[in-house]
Amino acid sequence: MSVPEVLLHRDQGMLAEAAAARLVTRIADAQAARGAASVVLTGGGAGTAVLAALGGAAARDAVDWGRLDVWWGDERFLPAGDPERNETGAREALLDHVPLDPARVHPMPAADGPDGADPEAAASRYADELLFAAHPGGAPRSAFAVPSFDVLMLGVGPDAHVASLFPGLPAVAETRRPAVAVHDAPKPPPTRISLTFPVLRAAREVWVLAAGESKAGAVRLGLSGADPAAAPVAAARGRERTLFLLDVAAASRLPAGHSPAP
After folding, report:
1. What are the pLDDT digits (tens) for 215-231?
2. Contact, 41 vs 69, CB < 8 A?
3. Label partner for 162 (CA 20 to 30 A): which of 41, 86, 125, 185?
4. Which residues contact 1 (CB under 8 A, 6 or more apart)?
5. DSSP summary character for residue 11
6. How far apart (Å, rounded) are the C-alpha atoms in residues 241 and 183?
7. What are the C-alpha distances in Å from 69 to residues 62, 76, 113, 121, 142?
8. CB neighbour list of residue 135: distance below 8 Å, 6 or more residues apart
9. What is the pTM of this model?
């Protein structure tokens, strides 16, 4: 796993613009090298702000949108189109305004989807979709044969959760399933679907986005070797690179040895 790097930005607006520019470059580089790229989106204020900034940037034309696969790290288990769903925010901010291939957009199932109000079945369906994407030709599949995401973005909560992996809940310790249902989440809505840590850590790059003083304690835990069971952000690491993209307020309590990159 990679060692985290801290990149500092003046405020959330600058963070969003810088992350959007970085994302364009990363996607374009991956498409040039391999023909296609894949990203995992996050919701929340910072994640949606990045997508909105990308949608308004002239540089977005550097992306071949038809060769981009879009996934989600977690989702609120609500009906399709609900304004609280991460998918809804992402579509409004960017996805409905660029020429994506609909077959390459992979939202997590909704509560009024094919599995109805069964989040376990919905999580299993998403796990199967990940496995099929990793082996579209029907090759032998293992439990964590998932796509090698180029960039996986994560927000972080004041309680140090990432995706819908909350401190003390069983999903944090899950190692056998790629996606799980989450019940009794301390942040509403209580029922969610989330990728698990083995899948998150399979990404080439993991970006942790944090803005605001309320996130400073969680950022400190994420960079200081805390127990992931108590501070899940501490396990957010990419195979090749891990970036903590922060504004000044979120970086106000950095541990020793983690000065921002020049």
Report:
1. 999 999 999 999 999 99
2. no
3. 125
4. 201, 237, 238, 239, 242
5. S
6. 31
7. 16, 21, 21, 23, 21
8. 141, 145
9. 0.95
